[in-house]
């Protein structure tokens, strides 16, 4: 058994840029960032393991006080690889960006940045629901309140770490309490329960999504749940499954970035956006993430 392990990555990769991309709000509750170290609580088969992630020489170092079995190391390695998309070679993407004068500055400005994902599909869908039609600051506050009340909490070396609620815990949320005292809309609470029920019943899972052969089929499975629209489905597929075609059209930040760069004249012109992304086949989601990061 081991208490630490290393994860290699494909160059170009910037741990610093990925670390900085994790900071979105002081209300972020699902990980802690301190002195270039990432602290996170991960559920591995019902066993909650505290990870400390850092960069060391030419690899990612993962440490814990937990004596890990080989199966746990394998799961956590895959988790971190998905979280930071460590196996992606960005060279072809940068070559595409450099062909467009409006985007040619991005490979240098954001060199080595990966899509910082949400490996847990259930968490990713719920986060997309929480963030619907509100600003990011308020969305983080709502997520914190939900996690504090229904998630798992662990005290570790003087640090309080939290894990997102399970589908079963989400099905038990008190809608009256969360609406009347925590500022959740009734529709958000209903949609969260719909998603929890779908995961608890096995209607949706990471494995089931990955078993579907096409992007459209995965998107259709997600949008079959009431409360999950195309934006939420694409956001989830982008952040949880690294699906390259998953462009969250209608996203305010994406529209603003394209407008700022002179790529579109009308922030609501979805057709022009779709034509623009045609030139980046296989890298659409990465272009979205870089455009967000350029703001």
Automatic annotation (TrEMBL):
A Pfam family it matches: OGG_N
Keyword Hydrolase attributed: yes
Entry-linked SUPFAM superfamilies: DNA-glycosylase (SSF48150)
EC number: 3.2.2.21
Domain HhH-GPD, residue spans: 130-290
GO cellular component terms listed in the entry, alphabetical order: cytoplasm; protein-DNA complex
Domain of life according to the entry: Bacteria
UniProt key word Hydrolase: yes
Record GO biological process: base-excision repair, AP site formation; DNA alkylation repair; nucleotide-excision repair
GO-annotated molecular function: alkylated DNA binding; DNA-3-methyladenine glycosylase activity; DNA-7-methylguanine glycosylase activity; oxidized purine nucleobase lesion DNA N-glycosylase activity
Alphabetized UniProt keyword annotations: DNA damage, DNA repair, Hydrolase
Enzymatic reactions: Hydrolysis of alkylated DNA, releasing 3-methyladenine, 3-methylguanine, 7-methylguanine and 7-methyladenine
PANTHER family: DNA-3-METHYLADENINE GLYCOSYLASE
Family to which the UniProt record says this protein belongs: Belongs to the alkylbase DNA glycosidase AlkA family.
Protein name listed in UniProt: DNA-3-methyladenine glycosylase II
Native organism taxonomy: Bacteria, Pseudomonadati, Bacteroidota, Cytophagia, Cytophagales
